[in-house]
Amino acid sequence: MNRVVVAGAGLAGVRSVEALRARGFEGEIVLLGQERHRPYDRPPLSKAVLLGTSDSSFVDSDLATLEVDFRPGVSATGLRAGVVETSEGDLPYDGLVIATGADPITLPGDGQQHVLRTLDDALELRARLVRGARVVVIGAGWIGAEVATAARRAGCEVTVVEAGPAPLSQAVGAELGARTLPWYDGIELRLDTMVASVDEGGVRLVDGEFLEAHVVVTGVGVRPAVEWLAGADIDLHNGVVADEHLRASLPGVVAVGDCAAWWSRRYGTRLRVEHWDTALGAPEVAAATLLGEDAVYDPVPYFWSEQFGHMVQYAGHHPAGARLLHRGGPEGKWSACWLTEDDTLAAVLAVDRPRDLVQGRRIIDAGPRMDPERLVDPDVPLRDC
Ligand code: FAD
Description:
Layout (H helix, E strand, L loop, with lengths): L2 E5 L3 H12 L5 E6 L14 H4 L16 E5 L3 E5 L2 E4 L2 E4 L2 E4 L3 E3 L14 H10 L5 E5 L3 H12 L3 E5 L7 H4 L1 H4 L10 E3 L4 E5 L2 E4 L4 E3 L2 E4 L3 E3 L15 E3 L10 E3 L4 E5 L4 E3 L4 H15 L11 E6 L2 E7 L6 E5 L6 E6 L5 E7 L2 H13 L5 H4 L10
Parallel strand pairs: 1-2, 1-7, 2-3, 7-18, 9-10, 9-15, 10-11, 17-19
Antiparallel strand pairs: 4-5, 5-6, 8-16, 12-13, 13-14, 19-20, 21-22, 22-25, 23-24, 24-25
Helix pairs in contact: 1-7
The structure holds flavin-adenine dinucleotide (FAD).
């Protein structure tokens, strides 16, 4: 193999370059990045960058030492077998890593709506979050909650509009999401409320009400950035379809990070996980696969969010219908576990209880049966349940 092209210069892209070199690949690597920045981490954008304690989050990797031909501002625009079409012409490849991430979903309307995906988005939004600004955040999911945290801290008048019955309800269900309601103190939270459009000067709700706003932030989710593959002979379904080795349907092509929908052996289903840990870990396996080694990607997915002064962590994957058990705790610190039918741990959510998260993740990996009666006692360490 002479040349590997990596499409997408986010975390998964740069980690793919590192993994290829670490495995001894000495050929040419071209890294295509639609953005003009060198690779950076996104989690700090809605935390330290938005809060103003940091101005950037560049990934600590030395592109010169990696001897990678990094092409900022160049997009992959199409794919034929053995050739990536780019905004600067055709680029033949022997191996291709698809790491184009995800794009934020926006809502109808002509009004200005901020999204938070890139460093430029974060810096632009931060400049608008000033004391007294009327800010409407659409969506009380992970990003919406973190933006609301920063906006309230900046002294803005914040309204959060959420279509579901509770914050985070899509991610963890309404019952657990409702436990975060007290965190919205000082914020107007509108639940079960649908936005029709973002118009000049504010947000129009489906029932006709208009919420005035100086700043509107839309945080209603992302979709895999695979439009550039629309005409290509490659399977796409909720992202790039990949097997457990992260191999896409086109020979010599692997997919990693937010854009990859890979087959999970552990869960017996296809997963597409939009979390940092996946972008960090999957490239090891993708690089090995590309170089002809037999590697399987089978992690216990992990995610964290920092909102309203709380550390929220989730590990695992809970199918619909998994049994939910609460582990209360002192001072508002709590966790919850999802059990499968045979009492193995499917997933754990921990709020300011990092030990539950760490132990829970190991337990999910190992797969022992749990004792539900011990599990609901927060004083019993999870590993002893
Ligand atoms: P990306 O980071 O999206 O990188 C893909 C890159 O490809 C982008 O730079 C994009 O411009 C480029 N690209 C797209 N299309 C093309 C093309 N056609 N040609 C060339 N380049 C292209 N996860 C957590 O676990 N915890 C958190 O707290 C957390 N916080 C987050 C906060 C924010 C604001 C955001 C946006 C995400 C957060 N995440 C968090 C998610 C995590 O950052 C992502 O899962 C991770 O960035 C995915 O990495 P990636 O490399 O797959 O995709």
